[in-house]
Amino acid sequence: MRHSLLLSGEQADSFIKVLAIFEKKQVIRSVEKWQVAQTARNLATHDYEISYDEVADHFNTLQTLTSTLYQIARRFIIYCEQELGICPHSPDFSEEFYLITE
Questions:
Q1: How far apart are CA 40 and CA 53, in angstroms?
Q2: CB 96 within 8 A of CB 70
Q3: What is the count of structural domains for the chain?
Q4: CB 64 within 8 A of CB 36
């Protein structure tokens, strides 16, 4: 995200400002919701619980966030195409990606 802002000529000296700009551009719906999703993702990759109930709860939470993350990814790709003229090099995944993120 930070690199796409640099390519568009925007400046942001912290990632929270990057998120604020993308919230304003409606790529993300809210900074707070993005941070919740990112925190849940980070916990999934770095926290090694031994309680199966806690692990199940965590992955159930991630499942509820999946749709939000897909929507952000779709809006970010659209932003890159419209604002920067950048699109995926190969269309191999595009049709499936747009079907999943609708």
A1: 16
A2: no
A3: 1
A4: no
Please calculate the CA angle 89-28-11 and round it to the nearest 5 degrees. Answer: 75
Contacts (Cβ under 8 Å, ≥6 apart) of 5:
11, 12, 18, 21, 22
The token duo for 102 is 């609708």
- Tell me the residue ranges of DSSP E strands in the chain: none
CA–CA dist 102, 99 (Å, integer): 6
Q: Which domain holds residue 22?
A: 2-101
Return the axis-axis angle of helices 15-24 and 31-46, rounded to nearest 10°. 130
Q: What is the value of pTM for the model shown? A: 0.78
- pLDDT tens digits, the chain, 102 residues: what are they? 889 989 999 888 899 999 999 999 999 999 998 888 888 877 777 666 677 887 788 788 888 888 888 889 899 999 999 999 998 787 788 778 888 887
